[in-house]
Each structure stands twice: as C-alpha cells, then as structure tokens.
Here is the input.
Amino acid sequence: MWTDTHCHLDAAEFDADRDAVVARARGAGVGQIVIPAVAAANFDTVRLLAVQHGFAYALGIHPLYVMRAAEGDLATLAQALQSHHIDPRLVAVGEIGLDFFVPGLDPETQQHFYVEQLKLAKRFGLPVILHVRRSADQLLAGLRRVGFMHGGIAHAFNGSEQQAQAFIALGFKLGFGGTLTFERSLQIRRIAASVPETALVMETDAPDIPPQWLYKTAAEREADAGQGRNEPSELPRIARSLAELRGWTAENTAAITSANARAALPRLARNG
Here is the structure.
C-alpha cells in the first residue's frame, strides 16, 4: 500500500471529479492520503473529506495564506486542535512554514505565524508538516528556538544535503514527489539517493508539482486549465524514480516509505 503524505484533495481543481480521483488513487494502490489545510476557512473541509474517504488530515495556516490571515485565525486553529485533539485522523499541524521564494510575503508575518503554530503543535503533542521553500535554515532555527521535539515532514524538500541532515537529526522525514521525475533535479535526486532509507516519504502535493509526464508550460496551463493536474494516483509511477535511485523494487519502496510515514505521523498507524 502506498501513502501519499501530502495531497490537497479539497482543492477546487478536484471539484468536478473528486470521487473519481479517490477511486483512481485506490485503484493504483494508494491506500492512505494526508490532506493538509492551508487556511482557517478550510479546516472543516479537510476534516470532513478525511472522514468521508477514510483518510487523514492536518490543520494549519500555509505561509502563502498568512498575509490574508488575522490573529484570530491562530485562535481558531487552537480551538480546532482542542476540539479534535483525540481524533485519530488528525495527524499533524500543517501545512505551515516559511516561503522566501514568492515575492510580496512579509517575512516577519510569516515568522510570527510559523512560530505560533509550532507552539500549538508542541502544546498538543502533534508533528508538523512544513512548507520549505528557500527557507530551510530559518525553519530549523524556529524548531530549535521553540524546542520542538515531535518531528514531522519537511514537505517537497529542496534544500541542501546539510539541511537535509539537520532536519533528519530533529526527527523529520523528507517528502519527495514529482520533482524527482525530472533528470535536471540533480540535487534533489542526489539527496533522495543518499539519505538514510528511514528518512524518505512519498507525496504528490496534488494538484500541484506534476511529474515530468504531466508537466505543461505556463502558456499551456493558461490555455487549458485541466492541463498538468497532478493526482494521488500518480504516486506509484512517481515512486519509480525513487526506486531506481535506491535500487529498490516497487514493493519495497511502498513498504519503506509507508512505514516512514507512520513513523513521522504516528496516528496514521491507527487509520489502517
């Protein structure tokens, strides 16, 4: 069984055929999906989708959404975590983190929401799912400052080998997905091949980060909104790249990465 540790199943891109997307995922052998929230407005949506389909979810405020968030959204998150803290499908606080790639995002605002959400995860004893984009060192500094010891996943990891080892030392797994399928992703492929096998988890970030065979140019995507949509059913094919890099069979890759997902997000073990 495959585990997709990061899929935005609630995204509008899936509104027309969400049930069919889930059916294709199950048909491809993807038995578990983690659905992370991105804003307070979709906390209930991701939770209800997880319940409906037998998946798992995470609650948090994404760094790309913090500029439109209010301080009260942190209180909403705290209340939601309190209300659902015994729900076995609630596996993490996420997606949270820092993004220093997209222009126009205030670093101080991002840091404030990141640190406060780390504190909530620590308070409720939950792992975190981290958004890492040109921000690995700052994320690591925040984890150390808060004294966060519950681990989690560095989603769509794209940092250096040294940063990878630093996350691993703090109990994190590294998320790999569609980017692995591009031969030009030399550093990411090198890290995926060299880190300990216990550090690897698979993800799609669907509908985003499409693999090479789904990739479309910006012009092509603009011409047809349906072009290039990623799906959780693509996970086994994406994972072939990891299997080739590590010299593993598909069965070993599924077993190892799913076990790692359960280690990173322990409540997954209670979700079948």
The domain at 2-270 is CATH 3.20.20.140 (TIM Barrel). The first strand starts at residue 2 and ends at 4. The CA atoms of residues 91 and 163 lie 24 Å apart.
